[in-house]
Amino acid sequence: MYFLDAMLIFISMLILVVMVLVGVAFLTLLERKVLGYIQIRKGPNKVGLMGLLQPFGDAIKLFTKEQTFPFMANFNIYYLSPAVNLFTSLMLWMCMPFVSVFLSFNLSILFFLSIASLSVYSIMLAGWSSNSSYSLLGSLRSVAQTISYEVSLALILMSFIFLVLSMNLLDFLKVQKYVWLMFLMLPLSLMWIISGLAETNRTPFDFAEGESELVSGFNIEYSSGGFALIFLAEYSSILFMSMICVLLFMGGNVYSFTFFLKLTFVSFIWVWVRGTLPRFRYDKLMYLAWKSFLPSSLSYLMFFFSLKMAIFILLS
């Protein structure tokens, strides 16, 4: 019986991963279309009807390109890093609350934080193993940025946890039956979205890929399949962060079609920001994390902790 249950969970996970990868393919198309219209041009419109087959054309092109072999690279780590990066990005999806359970257990938020912090290592090793000054600089900047914003993400998340008093993502669904947490915690929700942008290395925080000074950052030596895997990992993380935003403070009822509409809207915001805002200055990025978000999230944390304590004392 346990074997059949395990098989069912495994097959469900496999289907979810395939669907996420298809979603990533069409997210890239959405991004290119939206950026095109922001810049008053069409975007992909030649391959298939309105460019619908463009993502598949891109995938075929990337995976059939010639693979480069950097002579001085640390060979094994260099080739494993993109695969590990994509694996950790897809593993995050296993804590998504769904009908077939996956790994959505009582401590699924801890699982999310643990796996999210692992992606730092694959970026660091990808930059270091390429044995190039540009890739090493890009990876160091990316790691510093990711670690800084993980602190604010965790503290913001703790405010939500104090309010819901649970680490199970399903409980967020139950709490928001009548009112979204976004209306109760608007500043924290906006801080979470900004921290999510920094965590996924997206504009205006794409310092790992600062083309003007770093020539594409930690992935400079990657081409063909290795680059495609890093690309897939980044867009999978964007979709996942959008999903977490919907679950935490937009009344994420996963059993409703509106959940997926909200997810699409939040991932559209990620693209919209890219088409609108210029890149931040690096010192301002760190200032925002340590001198703005950290004190604010700590203050909110103390406020919600006091609020829950007051309610507990009044009820008892």
Can you walk me through this structure?
With 316 residues, this protein is mostly helical. The chain has twelve helices and no strands. Helix content is 72%, strand content 0%. It is globular. Helix 5 (133-164) packs antiparallel against helix 8 (186-199). The protein has one domain (66-315).
Overall number of strands: 0
Q: Are there runs of 5+ residues with pLDDT below 50, and where?
A: none
Assembly level = single chain
The residue-averaged pLDDT reads 86
Largest sheet: none
Distance between the termini: 44 Å
| Relative strand content | under 5%
Enzyme class: translocase
InterPro entries: NADH_UbQ_OxRdtase_su1/FPO, NADH_UbQ_OxRdtase_su1_CS
Protein name: NADH-ubiquinone oxidoreductase chain 1
Catalytic activity: a ubiquinone + NADH + 5 H(+)(in) = a ubiquinol + NAD(+) + 4 H(+)(out)
Short description:
It contains twelve helices and no strands. It is an all-alpha fold.
Record keyword descriptors for this entry.
316 residues, single chain, mainly alpha
Which secondary structure elements does this structure contain, and how are they paired or packed?
Layout: H1 2-38, H2 54-64, H3 75-91, H4 108-129, H5 133-164, H6 169-175, H7 181-184, H8 186-199, H9 211-214, H10 224-249, H11 257-276, H12 282-315
